[in-house]
Amino acid sequence: MAASNEHVRLEVETDEKFSHRNSVAERIMWVVLTLFILAGFAGFFGKGGISNTKQESGDGAMLIDYERYLRYNTATELKLSLLKPPANDTLKLIISDGFIDKVLLESIMPQPLESGMTPLGQLYVFHHKPGNYIPVITFHFRPEHDGTLRSTIAMPGAEPLSISQFVYP
Amino acid sequence: MEQLVRALVIYIFVILVFRLSGKRALQQLTIIDFVLLLIISEATNQGMLDDDHSITNAFLIIALYVMLDVLISRLELRSKVFNKIMDNVPEIIVEHGVPVKKIMRRARVKEEDVLEKARELHGLENMSQIKYAILESNGEINIIPEEK
Q1: Is the distance from CB of A143 to CB of A74 less than 8 angstroms?
Q2: pLDDT at residue B43 in the model
Q3: Which of A7, A10, B29, B134 could bridge across to B34 with cysteines, CB 3.0–4.6 Å?
Q4: Are A137 and A82 spatial neighbours (Cβ–Cβ below 8 Å)?
């Protein structure tokens, strides 16, 4: 105890108990940050890895290639492959308002011939040359709201496809 | 409103990360000074400002950070516990020429660091000439030489 008395004379306010707790908190923080970084590498916060996923509609007409985890106001894309395209030269898609209202749609490739509103959501009409290929439509967008983003994509005569994405702040 | 919440969350995160990164990560500045400088200079960062690059938003965020700093310093004056939580406490790492290995290991300080400081501050040649070496709460090492 002589040493502590000298510390008092030194006027250095040490606190062994606090220092020990602090050191435990530091170690916990290191573990948390390491897990955070590893989760980032794995794609848990978007941009590749486990975030990339695909989903096919029940009838096998559509396949969506998308990111499960998105980041607020960060560009991303959703690729829609039409595995059973219609035989005529127009292709209609309806995207639910839940998606349209929560994102900033930057571009659609190929560009739709026309677009309009329907009770089910936004309608896009594309020109389509029937042939032996799989049409792919890519939506480039930025999420404008945090949290869950639910979207439904429908094509006349096909089963609609619903997906759920999570947008990190 | 949303920008201020984002700025507040970033502030808390940065404080937490730097506070718990250990004393040796920061040496000259106190943790709060460091964080304040860092995040004010980063006030134009996209993640914090989002797509709002207005002067109004920058002023709001800077005002928020400065007032948080004032609030923290006032709380530190009022509460010793809060002061310890925010600024940490000093530790004696050498007593009468004997390194306190447990504390040095915990604080990630090497004997060479202490000797370097002893040479730099007092021209001391070896550990036995050190009465106390104190690792201050900001990570700085101070040396009190043995009386001759």
Answers
A1: yes
A2: 61
A3: B29
A4: yes
With CB atoms and an 8 Å threshold, state whether B9 touches A15: no
Instruction: Collect all residues of chain B within an 8 Å Cβ-Cβ radius of residue A169.
Output: 6, 9
CB contact under 8 A, A14 and B6: no
- Taking only the tens place, the pLDDT of each residue in A49-61 is 999 999 999 888 8
B102, closest residue in chain A (CA to CA): A20
Q: Which residues of A touch B50 (CB under 8 A)?
A: 72-73
Task: With H, G, I as helix, E, B as strand and everything else as coil, classify residue A104.
Answer: strand
Q: Identify the DSSP state of A142.
A: E
Q: Which residue has the higher pLDDT, A79 or B29?
A: A79
Contacts of A19 in chain B (CB under 8 A): 89, 91, 103, 106
Task: Give backbone dihedrals phi and psi of A27, rounded to 5 degrees, phi first.
Answer: -65, -40
**Measuring CA to CA, which residue among A151, A50, A41, A47 is closest to residue A93?**
A151
B106 versus B18: the higher-pLDDT residue is B106
Q: Do A14 and B91 touch, CB atoms closer than 8 A?
A: yes
B78 has a pLDDT exceeding 50: yes
Yes or no, beta carbons of B92 and A12 under 8 Å apart: yes
Low-confidence ranges of chain A (pLDDT < 50): 1-5
Instruction: Determine the Cα–Cα distance for residues B60 and B37; give it in Å rounded to an integer.
Output: 16
